[in-house]
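The aim of this short unit is practical: by the end, you should be able to scan a pair of folded records and say something sensible about each. We start with the first protein, listed as its amino acid sequence and then its structure tokens.
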Amino acid sequence: MRGQAPAQASLTVLSREGRRTVPLTISGDQDLVFLDDLASLFQLSVREDSLGALTVGYKGKTILMTPDQPIASIAGRLISLPAAPSRAGRRWLVPVEFVGRALALVYDARLDLRRASRLLVVGDLRVPRVTVRVENGDPTRVVIDASPRTGSTIAQENRAIAVRFEADALDLVVPGIQPGPELQAIRLQEPAALLLEPGPRFGAFRASTQPLETATRLTIDLQSAPGPAPTGPPAATAAAPPPAAAAPAPDRPLPAALPAAGQGTLVLDPGHGGDDDGVRGAAGTREKDLALAVARRVKAAVEARLGIRVVLTRDDDRAVPLETRAAIANNNKADLFLSLHANASFRRTAAGASFFYASFEPEVEAAGAMRRSERVPTLGGGFREIELVSWDTAQLRYVARSADLARMLADEFRDRIPLSPHPVERAPIEVLRSANMPAVMVEMGYLSNDDQERLLADAGFQNTLVQAIYDAILRFRGAPPAGAQ
């Protein structure tokens, strides 16, 4: 515009070497960049001939431009530009689209120009486009879309809720947020995390992940704490157990407070490992890898949000004997044991998650009902009674509680994760029979089903699965045994 200096802005350039900015000049609706700045950044040569034509060179390849035409020529191929090169004193300006339309064709690394964000990604960096929407209400809902589909984990860190993406950086769009009682602010934590800063009335949160056609949607509901505004840590990290009368039935919503937070041990058993791949899907997804990936996500969620200790029977790709898996749980005095697996069937249409708890032969159950004890001498003299537990039938006393847990898992999966027609079953599963605590095997789905294999391999779907497992653990820890008064 005549008589007015062009406005200034900057282009952010992300590469493996880090982040830098390049100044832009805004003229009308055009973002323009100085050609010598690009030359310095990308090691280009720039030559102007006597007629004013420009030759931009890179490793023997050239781009030709003239100041009177919005066109670039590469080996005879014409590339349209939104504006022709123009002079600013002794320097040349070109539209920023020159980078994505022309330079990207000769450069030896990927150049991804995102005009709307004024962002340039150099190389094979994972930089998803992340948009945030806040819906005020009760609860306050935060909807986060990441495109393309991107895995993420969510955990509570002190009072903040951290959403960490499996990415090198974020192309982030966050609207202006009016601070409220449940949510004060949302900010970026480099390189690829969002921090949700709760307000004074925040009590707990619930998260779910939904895979969309080209994106992953993470929905976080921020719930208010009951009663006066808390002055200490939020209920999601440290809260006293509710009175027994307030314990929810299995089909009721989750309580805002977490029963017995910071107490107990959960043992997660990622099935198979080492030379034993388990089931393998048609696209190559291996059961052992899937089980370990989900176990790690569950561990992160439970430790961060419940504060209890989580032990994995394996944290890498190695073989662990079945008897050792239960022994790890017993030796760690675990309160809960979950063995994670994927299923397979000759029927390629078979689909859905299922949950197994241990069964025993009728004569074993009858014998187990007659508990045996033995008198042993004590250090100070005298004797005391100790109860004898047979190693291979240790699960007998926990069958009812294991059934409760299996039903709660099925309840939490329902409407989030596909379920098999009969999701809760009993079976003589060896890894469960020796567990001296409530124990369930989780079959997350069928890798023999092509559609389900794609879902199970998707990081966003895994997050939804993890959230369902977490919610079931939360309910199980707060619910009395079935039939208890």
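Turning to the second protein, read its sequence before its tokens, just as you did above.
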Amino acid sequence: MTETALSGPLVLPGDVLLVPVADLSAGARLQLNCQDGDVAITRPRLRTPSRLVSAGAAELLREFASPSTVVEAVIRRSRACGADPEATLEGAYPLLARLVREGFLVSASDAAARRIEASWDAGERIAGCTVQCCLQVIEDTEVYQVRAGGAGREAAL
């Protein structure tokens, strides 16, 4: 990730979830070794595992629900909680850079800002096959059950 990646507008894709650990089961909280107030950030279908962030970091991340530069988001968050913007930026920069590298926070103009979802619907034709259903979708791989060619054999694509 380059410095440039953090200079333009960034956004949390619509499928990113910020879940307070208090909403998780007691067993899950024990496995996570988390603090009260921590928030899990996850993006279904992303290969990167969920991460834990502090409640304050989660509030800053919520500033990226709509496209925003890092500076704009930090200033808004700092004003809302009465914090020093420079100190907030200094403390948040490593986390924001990591979340950009991992795909949780993306350039607003990037295709990665869209939800990770299937490219093909049931009934559509691809490579001489008819899609029956989508079996699995992750960020860089999709698996479909299809009917192949004129013989109508089921196959995976």
